[in-house]
Structure formats: C-alpha cells, structure tokens
Amino acid sequence: QKEVEQDPGPLSVPEGAIVSLNCTYSNSAFQYFMWYRQYSRKGPELLMYTYSSGNKEDGRFTAQVDKSSKYISLFIRDSQPSDSATYLCASPKNTGNQFYFGTGTSLTVIP
Amino acid sequence: EPEVTQTPSHQVTQMGQEVILRCVPISNHLYFYWYRQILGQKVEFLVSFYNNEISEKSEIFDDQFSVERPDGSNFTLKIRSTKLEDSAMYFCASSEVGGVSNQPQHFGDGTRLSIL
C-alpha cells in the first residue's frame, strides 16, 4: 500500500524562484507530517514538522497541510543553490513509530 | 547540535557473511530506529526499539535481522547471513519520544552496505 506518494521530479529552477513540493497521503488518520532534506550521500535532515491542517513557516520554508484533500506541500522562497537536494515528505503510522516516506523529489537550483 | 552517528560509512561483505552496523543515537533520546533505502527507492522502516526491546518491526525485518543496545550509547543492527538484496543504505534514527505524538526522528548519515 502506498501510504505516502510524491512526484520524484527532477525539478530544476533558477536561483530566487519559489519552489513548490507536494505529497499526497492515503490514510486519513495521519496527523503529523514531516519534511526532510537529503543531500547526496547523507541522511535525511529534518526541515519542518507540522501537526494537522494549516501552515507553518520557518524562514524561507513554509509547510502546508490540507487534510480534506490529504495533500502536503513545502514551499521554498528565494531558492538558493544550497537548497539543491532531495526533499522527502513523511508521516508516522498512526498507532506506532514507523514513518512512511515518499520517494523524494530531487531539486536543483541553478545559479 | 547533537547528532546521530553511524559506523562504518561503507561496508563491503561477501554474501552469506554476518554484518553489524553501529549507531550512536542522540544522548537524551529514548526511541531508536533502523531504516533502509535501496538505491532509487523509498526510505523503508525496519524496526523501532524502546526500553531494550523491539516495539515495532516491518515485514522486511525477518529472522536474519536483530537489534541490540549492548551498552548505554550504542545501538546495533545485525544481519546474520547477508543476501545480495540486502545491499542498501541503512539509516539509524532516534527520537525523544515515540508513539502517535512522537517527536520527529533524527537520522544519521547512514551505512552503505554492499553485498558481493
């Protein structure tokens, strides 16, 4: 069962662009949603952590959850070349500790 | 900032041999996890560990896998008789708490396991 789905890209944008990364999930019981950034040959690094619906902003990053459509988004403003990485969405299994990850979207920000 | 550390960064092993992957979780964290990522595929959950016992495991985590916290700082994943399909990146993670209201999991940089 594909609990969390994500368009793998790749996505290529010019420096300074607004980036929109998206995921969908299947289980309406999911409540917590995370975005991780993964650089090549590194582990996933936590970027944003949100609970239920709504927006959460942290610097240039905004995470958005729409539970009615089971849609998760990450927006990056004023994108920088250092933002070039793979972005993973994840949600924990509602009754345990297991995280379900999307496949990741590969982003390249061109200087 | 505290981090999860994993050793070795790359392990090459002959098929059928045993391997032990090591992790040092963040010191005040109580929940520990192993995930794997086969090249080009999703990060997949293997097992979670709390209070010196397995709290949850996936279908992937069969009898050839075991986990242990041999002392107060290390957390290990053992694969008893490796197969070619065990070749993957193995990530260790830890979190302060677990369960439905869990805090985010923090990941190490992984061990790349290559089975020949």
Features of this protein?
A: 111 residues; mainly beta; five-stranded antiparallel β-sheet; 0% helix; 56% strand; globular; B: 116 residues; four-stranded antiparallel β-sheet; 11 strands
Give the arrangement of secondary structure elements.
The complex is a heterodimer of chains A (111) and B (116).
Chain A: E1 4-6, E2 11-14, E3 19-25, E4 32-38, E5 45-51, E6 54-58, E7 61-66, E8 71-76, E9 85-92, E10 99-101, E11 105-110
Parallel strand pairs in A: 2-11
Antiparallel strand pairs in A: 1-3, 3-8, 4-5, 4-9, 6-7, 7-8, 9-10, 9-11
Chain B: E1 5-7, E2 10-13, E3 19-24, E4 31-37, E5 43-50, E6 53-57, E7 65-68, E8 75-79, E9 88-95, E10 106-107, E11 111-115
Parallel strand pairs in B: 2-11
Antiparallel strand pairs in B: 1-3, 3-8, 4-5, 4-9, 5-6, 7-8, 9-10, 9-11
Number of alpha- plus pi-helical segments of chain B: 0
Main sheet attributes: strand count, strand direction, barrel closure of chain A: 6 strands, mixed
Element-by-element helix/strand order of chain A: EEEEEEEEEEE
Assembly state: heterodimer
Mean pLDDT, all residues of chain B = 91
Task: Provide the β-strand percentage band of chain B.
Answer: over 45%
Structural class of chain B: mainly beta
**Low-confidence residue ranges of chain A:** none
Largest interface, and how many residues on either side? A-B, 25 and 29 residues
Q: What is the share of helical residues of chain A?
A: under 10%
- Tell me the strand percentage band of chain A: over 45%
Q: How many beta-strand elements of chain A?
A: 11
Q: State the major sheet of chain B.
A: 7 strands, mixed
General form of chain B: globular
**Strands of chain B, total number:** 11
Distance between the termini of chain B: 37 Å
- The dominant shape of chain A is globular
Low-pLDDT segments of chain B: none
Rg of chain B: 13 Å
Q: Percent helix among the residues of chain B?
A: under 10%
Number of continuous helical runs of chain A: 0
